[in-house]
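step: validate -> pass
step: tokenize input -> pass
step: predict -> running
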Amino acid sequence: MRDFHPDDDFASPEEYIPQSTPDDFDPGLPNQLLDFVLRSESAEVVDTDLFAVMKKRRSTRKFSDKPVETVKIDKIIAAADTAPTAGNFQGFEIFYIKSPEKKRQLVDACNFQSCVDAPVVLVFCKNPSRVKFNFPPYILRKFAIQDATLAAGYSQL
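step: predict -> pass
step: emit ->
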């Protein structure tokens, strides 16, 4: 993996790693990404009632042009990483997009849902080829879609 840089226009999961990590950091270990992100910020982490968070969640259609801080991207991806998966398949990938041209292409590919004005767009994709179990392809595709959907939901919290 190469180091994540906040000015990157596009990153695939193989390229993503938080901005600074200890030498023994292994993103494959359960909750290590979340633990690292929560410990890495200097501000105090406040426990929150999950139902209060759910109640306040809103869908956003108007975006600021202010860049998204790296620590916020780290937290969102760490939250997605805690989502349950079917049999721990992990059959999905998360991409982040900053490039205006790639965001325009994404709008065309996604039924013209306008995300072009957002400073960063996260794309959750199924990738059943990541699953190392021997199951029929239709089962792998189904579980991969479910896993990506759950990760997207957790990232919104």
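step: describe -> The longest strand covers residues 92-97.
step: cleanup -> pass
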